[in-house]
Amino acid sequence: MKITRFEDLECWQEARILTRMVYEVTTDGPFKRDLRLSGQIQAAATSTMANIAEGFIRHSDKEFIQFLFIAMSSCAEVQSHLYVALDRSYVDNEKFEEIYSQADKTAKIISGLIKYLRTKTTK
């Protein structure tokens, strides 16, 4: 399958799922009232999607790779914020694991794309 739009990228699709999951837990209950933390974790999740899209549209593998690294870092930021949410009892262990795993899955797919792009540019 030829990828012609950022929406075709599996990593963007998984980042979208991650963002949806983050918004589901942050717009309800005590998490909603912690505006700073909910805003930070929402921004990190959204940043993952946005940086994949922005990098893709640059049409330069070198620039795309830079944006993918930022997106991968945003996944780690989501995971770090999740620990605070868990410690504050904003999420239970099950929800923590579910979102953490989605962030991990997204980061691994991004990492795979980075490796592919690096080998493609060295050929």
Explain the layout of strands and helices.
Layout lengths: L9 H17 L2 H5 L1 H23 L3 H27 L5 H30 L1
Helix pairs in contact: 1-3, 1-5, 3-4, 4-5
Would you mind describing this structure in some detail?
This protein is an all-alpha fold and 123 residues long. It has one domain (8-122): 23S rRNA-intervening sequence (de novo design (two linked rop proteins)), CATH 1.20.1440.60. It has 5 helices and no strands. The mean pLDDT is 95.
CATH architecture: Up-down Bundle
Task: Quote the distance from N terminus to C terminus.
Answer: 21 Å
Instruction: State the order of secondary-structure elements, H for helix, E for strand.
Output: HHHHH
Largest sheet: none
User: Structural class of the helix and strand makeup?
Assistant: mainly alpha
Quick overview of this protein structure:
The protein is mainly alpha-helical.
Name a few traits of the molecule.
single chain, 123 residues, mainly alpha, de novo design (two linked rop proteins), elongated
